[in-house]
Amino acid sequence: MTAQAPDQLRVDGHWLIVLERTLNAALPEEGCALLLGKTKDKSLELHRVWPCCNRWEPARERDHRFLLDPREQLLAQRWAREHALQVIGSAHSHPTSAAIPSQTDRELCFGPTLMVIASGLGNKRWRAWWLSGDDDGCEPRELPLRQGLAAGDQRLGK
């Protein structure tokens, strides 16, 4: 993952459908996935969604906490390398709260990284965040989420 902050996340609409179904399948718990893609110029491009199991313990807290399985992370990294991609970040759901990184999300992140959050509330369902992980910690900066890997400029999450 590049340490330089991207200026946007470009997503093919198909992968948003896959991501939405992956996260919804975990309800009422938080769902989670790894995001595989590429860095192109100053943009991140999402090319694949790697569904993951929420391994947070104790299990009764999975409605507001998630933990990616380290074995799934290793498999995703290996697969991504074999297909000229990289793990560009992760996604998870906030079934009962806004699509903003929680204090726990920020404390447990290893930046620099991309974090996409889907909310079960309100109009702005999808939001993308860049967490730098520099001396300021993992302070989130919202990224525009744009549909289409080509020339389109349709904003998502609004």
CATH A-level architecture:
3-Layer(aba) Sandwich
Q: Helix content range of the residues, please?
A: 10-25%
Lateral arrangement of strands in the main beta sheet: 7-6-5-4-2-3-1-8-9
Broad shape: globular
Please indicate the count of domains. 1
Give the SSE order as H and E letters. EHEEHEHEEEEE
Total count of strands: 9
- Gyration radius (Cα, Å) is 14 Å
As residue ranges, the low-confidence spans are 151-158
Specify the biggest β-sheet. Answer: 9 strands, mixed
Which SSEs are present, and which pair or pack?
Elements lengths: L7 E4 L1 H13 L6 E9 L2 E10 L17 H13 L3 E9 L8 H6 L4 E7 L6 E6 L8 E4 L1 E3 L6 E2 L3
Parallel strand pairs: 1-3, 1-8, 4-5
Antiparallel strand pairs: 2-3, 2-4, 5-6, 6-7, 8-9
Please give a structural write-up.
The protein is of the alpha/beta class. The chain has a single domain, classed as Cytidine Deaminase, domain 2. Helices cover 20% and strands 34% of the residues. The protein has helices at 13-25, 70-82, 103-108; strands at 8-11, 32-40, 43-52, 86-94, 113-119, 126-131, 140-143, 145-147, 154-155. A 9-stranded mixed β-sheet has the order 7-6-5-4-2-3-1-8-9. A hairpin with an 8-residue loop joins strand 6 and strand 7. The longest helix has 13 residues, at 13-25. The chain is globular.
